[in-house]
Each structure stands twice: as structure tokens, then as C-alpha cells.
Amino acid sequence: MSRDFAEARKENVIPIPTNFDVKLLVTPAKSKLSAIRFFDDVTKIMISDGKTKEEWEKAREGYKAYGIEQAIKEVNEKVQELGIK
Questions:
Q1: pLDDT over 70 (residue 75)
Q2: What is the pTM of this model?
Q3: Distance separating the N- and C-terminal Cα atoms of the chain
Q4: What is d(CA 19, CA 40) in angstroms, rounded to the nearest whole number?
Q5: Helices (H), ranges, the chain
Q6: pLDDT attached to residue 15
Q7: pLDDT tops 70 at residue 1
């Protein structure tokens, strides 16, 4: 059964394009983001009592406290500096 599922996924799932040059960039603020447990937050939001918008906003505020906006700025600057498309 699991082999059938794996084969079906292999035939029908299109992988998300990932730019590893960007994903693997290291900047000071981006390094601090490893403490954020994105998947835990998404799971909590999915199983919450239905107030997903409020839960997501709460999670976003937490990300801001970790410096996500600075990390995005640093990565965008580094991408431009390196000419990554």
C-alpha cells in the first residue's frame, strides 16, 4: 500500500521550485531565525478552534520579535549583491 502511494506521488506531484542559492544564504539575522518553529506554529493554527487569522497574526508578531523583517531585508540585499535570480 505504501509503495502504491509513493508511486502515485511520484507520478502526480510536482515539486516546488526551490532556489537553493537563496535558501542556503547565510546572513546574521537569518541565522537567528533557526529558533523559530514554523511547522509547530502552522500545526497549532491548523488544529486551533477556528480563529486562524488571529492565530496567524499572533505567530507573525512572534516572528517579528525574532527579527524576521531584518532577515528578509538582509537576504534581499545579499541576493542583489550576488546577482542571484
A1: yes
A2: 0.70
A3: 41
A4: 24
A5: 2-12, 20-23, 28-32, 38-46, 52-65, 68-82
A6: 85
A7: no
Cell of 11: 507520478
Residue 2 falls inside a structural domain = no
Measured in whole angstroms, the distance separating CA 74 from the mean position of its chain's CA atoms is: 16
Q: Model confidence at 7, in pLDDT bands (50, 70, 90)?
A: confident
Q: Say how many domains are in the chain.
A: 1
C-alpha cell at 64: 517579528
> Domain span at residue 40?
18-82
Give residue 52's identity as a one-letter amino acid code.
Answer: T
Longest alpha-carbon distance in the chain: 49
